[in-house]
Design goal:
There is one protein chain. By secondary structure, the chain is mostly beta strands. It has one domain: Beta Barrel (Lipocalin), CATH 2.40.128.280. The protein contains 2 helices and 9 strands, in the order H-E-E-E-E-E-E-H-E-E-E.
Length: 148
């Protein structure tokens, strides 16, 4: 009996001294939700050179849920509304959107390009999708805020 009790106490001491670590990767922010475009950045290849705020009445919204994306844009000056729908995936530093259909102008553009890959800067309440040129230099970004 003493041997069993001693073995049990020794096992408890060893288990309590063990440092448990999770094999799961560090969590990153979720892009799921609804986002409104707030501004644009222009880059010199790496750094922001200019910030352009979305003009009055200009409205662009993106919605990400369960691997699907839907976006819409209204430009009051032109009285033109645009939209698109597709799928998306994110990594720690990339947003990849595959557009499946959209308005007439979007469908024409989809003849040449359907998959859009952006550098992703994502926080809880903001994100930027940054475009790159053929040489990998930053050129332009759209900057969004989460809509509650």
């Amino acid at each position: 009996m003493k041997k069993i009790l001693s073995l049990l106490v020794l096992t408890l001491i060893l288990v309590s001294a063990t440092d448990f670590k999770s094999n799961q990767p560090d969590a990153f922010h979720s892009i799921e939700g609804t986002w409104e475009l707030k501004s644009f950045y222009n880059y010199d290849g790496e750094n922001v050179t200019d910030t352009v705020m979305a003009s009055d009445g200009y409205k662009q919204v993106k919605m990400y849920y369960n691997g699907k994306i839907m976006w819409s844009r209204y430009v009051p000056k032109d009285k033109v509304a645009r939209f698109g729908y597709g799928s998306y995936k994110i990594t720690n530093d990339q947003l990849i959107e595959t557009i499946e259909f959209g308005d007439n102008e979007m469908m024409s553009a989809l003849d040449t390009m359907r998959v859009f890959t952006f550098e992703l800067k994502l926080d809880d309440d903001t994100y930027s999708q940054i475009s790159h040129d053929e040489e990998g230099n930053r050129t332009f970004s759209e900057n969004y805020s989460r809509i509650d």
